Every structure is written in C-alpha cells, then in structure tokens.
Amino acid sequence: MLVDADNTLWDTDGVFARAQLSLLLAVENAVGRHSQAESRLDYVRSFDQALAEQHHLGLRYPPRLLIQALAFALQDVPQQEAVRRAWSDGTQSGVASETVSQIERAFFDMIAAHPSLLPGVVTGLRDLSVAGATTVVLTEGSRKRVMRTIDHHGLGGFIDRIFEAPKTLRMFERVKSLAGSGQTIYMIGDQLTRDIRPASEAGLKTIYIPGAFQPKWEQQAGNVATFQAETFDAASSFLLRAEEETRPSQQEGGKPTYLRVQNRT
Fold it and tell me: Which of 19, 62, 86, 87 could staple 69 via S-S, CB 3.0–4.6 A?
C-alpha cells in the first residue's frame, strides 16, 4: 500500500494555515494597513495560489514572494498586479528587505512544527499492520521531515518504508511492475492531481481522502478514485473488505497477497 503523508496522515494544512495568518498579520503591521477581507485565511490563500500557479515549484515557492505580493495588495494594488510586481521587483513593496527576511524566517519556524495526526490514522494503520499489509509512505517533500513526524507520533511500527519521489505516471508504473503475482497495489492520498490520477492511470487502485484545503486546480480535477473516504480508518476498512471479497482464499505464508502504499501533499 502506498500512502501520502501530508494531509493524509497528518494535518499539514493546519500548520500552514496558522503560519499564513501570522505572516499576513506581520505584513499588515509592516505596511500599517489591514485587510478588510471577511475571511483572512481565504484572502492570503488566494495570493498563495496565484503565486503557485506561476512558479515552477508550485506551492513550494519562496515565501518572500507572498510577503511582497500582500504588501502591494494592502496598498490598494489589485491582486493580479500585486503578484506580477512581487515577481518582477518585490523590493518596491514598501517593506524593508530586513523586515521581509524576518517575516520569512518566522514563517519557516512555524511550518517546522510537528502537525497533528488526522482522525482515524492510528486505528487505520494498526488494522492494516495486523492484516499483514506492507505500508510505504510516498512523499514529494523531504524524507527526513516525514521520518521525524513519524517518529514524533510513534508510527514507526506501522510503516515499512518511506520513499521520496515525484508522483508521476512513470513512477507509479514502476511501482506496479514490482508487484508480485496476485498482488494488488493501493494508493491512498488527498490530492486528485498528484496522488489519485497518476496512480489510477498506472493501474493502481486508489482511495481519495479529501483534505480540508483544496486549491482551485484540485477543485477542477475529476475524481477517478476507486473509493472516497472521509477518514483514514474508513479508507483502510474499505481496502481490507475489498481484499477479503476478491481474495478470500489467496494467502501466501499467512499474509494477504496485496501491497499497501501510502503518501503526504
């Protein structure tokens, strides 16, 4: 079984939400003006997504771009133009370079906090472990960071391996080629575009657990998952039931003949 880590096993979104709101407040204080948006989180995330759509690193773009775009916007520059100016010459945002660096460092410090586990994760991982499934965490982020979070929450006994790799069709096809005769590979994740679609196209069975935050490109993506679950334990229950129904007597060495893989976004 392949499992995504961020926002599938733990609440990375909550960590980023708190950091983004703190960043917005720091920019407002630096500029001396405050947003009048009804939802402050939606406001900052609208800039976040606008920047991510243009940057080759996507949502991993440098935070200083968000700081500078917000600074322009708080001075009555329309969002599209604020994003363009942040890209072209953010030093003209009116916020001193030293202040931008301080806000950026504070943001990095906040997102380094250990995220909380999502509901049903411990129960689901335990059930899969008892059933004899092999669980692999697949992440496009830092393997070391994922390992630290797993250790922090004491999940090591449920995880067999951790892979850091881009979630592409080719990668999932390679994983499928490693499966033994009669094995079924599952991919569990929270992103339709990164976890579910490429895995489905490679022929894996997929279980989609929608995250609390869905970027607009995720909202526009079609759901091609084998199954959708609200929590991780519901996903694991579906997987185990499906295997019991399709392979009631196919056992090798006392273990079920399916491979379990898990991932973060």
Answer: 86
